[in-house]
Structures are given as structure tokens and as C-alpha cells.
Amino acid sequence: MATDIERLVSFEEAYYDQYDYYNLLESKREIELNTNRHCPAGHERKIAEKYHNSQMKRRRTKSSSS
């Protein structure tokens, strides 16, 4: 009984040509480019959003108190 990997390899050998392999490699590269990556600086987006919201809130309170 063949394993799933062996079946997949035999399927690829039977039906894929060089262009199919090229497209597979390109799609893998696109997936790697479009995934979320770990940011060593931490939660930059959250910090920037909190800063922006606090600035907007501060502006609103200044304009309503004037």
C-alpha cells in the first residue's frame, strides 16, 4: 500500500511538466512574500495605532473645550 507522499510523487511525475513545476515554485514564493512575518521590534502596528488614537482624542478634547 503506497503512502500519500508516494502517490503524490508518482502523480507529479506522470502529469507535471517543467512549466507546472515552475508555477508551483512561483506560487510558493508568492505565499512566502505575502505571509505575516515576525517583527523583532514587537507590536509596532498596535503601538502606532494607540498613539494615533490618543492624538486624535487629544485634538477632539482641545477643540471641544475651546
Low-confidence stretches: none
**Assembly type of the shown chains?**
single chain
The major beta sheet can be summarized as: none
Work out the helix count. 3
The CA-CA distance between the termini, in Å, is 80 Å
- Please give the share of residues in helix: over 70%
Radius of gyration: 26 Å
Total beta-strand segments: 0
Beta-strand residue fraction: under 5%
Mean pLDDT across all amino acids: 80
Which class of secondary structure composition applies to the elements? mainly alpha
Q: Helix-strand pattern, N to C?
A: HHH
Account of the 3D structure:
The protein is an all-alpha fold. The protein has 3 helices and no strands. The N and C termini lie far apart (80 Å). The relative contact order is 0.06. The model has no long low-confidence stretch (mean pLDDT 80).
Write a brief caption for the model:
By secondary structure, the chain is mainly alpha-helical. It is 77% helix and 0% strand.
How is the topology of this model organized?
Layout: H1 4-15, H2 18-34, H3 44-65
